């Protein structure tokens, strides 16, 4: 068996316990059946029971520092989640950026430091920076570049729009998109 293009994922820092109970709820499995009990999507049955984790795609708590408590596996998506605890004591799950570590401090808002995990409008991020979790509408929550291995790179600014190149590594697709510069995003890594 060939090991070409094999990607090995290091799981030694993943949380081995259960998820935070206040940020999870049960998920009903349909088994691919509709309201009449007929199979409408094949190959959907069986599998382990899953709990859905409430992920904060909005990052609305501006100017409030948060600390990464732990990084967890999520059975509902390809990327890992980071449990963060804000200074006011509230907890949230966010999509874990590629190189974030337990104990890192992150913050959201305008004109913040260019650092992995920080969230700010596209107009505050310099060209050439890799980002993820991009909003399409103001205060609409992240819709683009949310899966594991995907990232987008800011190519430049044009009037009130930011030109973003979306890079999907898995299938090697590049997509160029103009997004309004006042949208919020999370930094993945600085180039």
Helix and strand pattern: EEEEEEEEEEEEEE
Helical fraction: under 10%
Biggest sheet: strands, sense, closure?
6 strands, antiparallel
Distance between the termini: 35 Å
**How many strand segments?**
14
| Strand content range | 35-45%
Given the structure, what is the number of helices?
A: 0
Mean pLDDT: 88
Rg over alpha carbons: 18 Å
Flag low-confidence runs. none
Spatial shape: globular
Strand order of the largest sheet: 7-14-8-11-12-13
Kindly name the structural category: mainly beta
Describe the structure.
This protein is mainly β. Helices cover 0% and strands 36% of the residues. It contains no helices and 14 strands. The strands form four sheets. It has a six-stranded antiparallel sheet with strand order 7-14-8-11-12-13, with no helix packed on it. Strands 5-4-3-6 form a four-stranded antiparallel sheet, with no helix packed on it. It has a two-stranded antiparallel sheet with strand order 1-2. A hairpin with a 4-residue loop joins strand 12 and strand 13.
Concise summary:
By secondary structure, the chain is an all-beta fold. It has strands at residues 24-26, 51-53, 66-72, 81-86, 91-95, 105-106, 119-121, 130-132, 134-135, 142-144, 150-158, 161-168, 173-180, 184-189. A six-stranded antiparallel sheet has the order 7-14-8-11-12-13, with no helix packed on it. It has a four-stranded antiparallel sheet with strand order 5-4-3-6, with no helix packed on it.
């Amino acid at each position: 068996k060939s090991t070409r293009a094999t990607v090995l994922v290091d799981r030694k820092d993943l949380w081995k316990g259960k998820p935070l109970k206040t940020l999870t709820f049960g998920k009903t499995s349909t088994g691919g059946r509709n309201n009449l009990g007929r199979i409408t999507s094949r190959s959907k049955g069986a599998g382990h029971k899953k709990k859905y984790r409430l992920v904060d795609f909005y990052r609305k708590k501006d100017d409030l520092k948060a600390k990464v408590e732990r990084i967890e596996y999520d059975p509902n998506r390809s990327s890992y989640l980071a449990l963060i605890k804000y200074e006011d004591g509230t907890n949230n799950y966010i999509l874990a950026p590629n190189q974030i570590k337990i104990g890192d401090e992150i913050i959201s808002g305008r004109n913040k430091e260019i650092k992995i995990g920080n969230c700010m409008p596209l107009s505050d991020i310099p060209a050439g920076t890799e980002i993820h979790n991009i909003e399409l509408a103001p205060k609409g929550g992240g819709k683009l570049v949310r899966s594991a291995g995907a990232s987008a790179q800011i190519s430049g600014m044009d009037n009130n729009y930011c030109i973003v190149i979306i890079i999907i590594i898995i299938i090697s697709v590049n997509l160029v998109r103009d997004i309004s510069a006042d949208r919020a995003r999370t930094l993945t890594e600085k180039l």
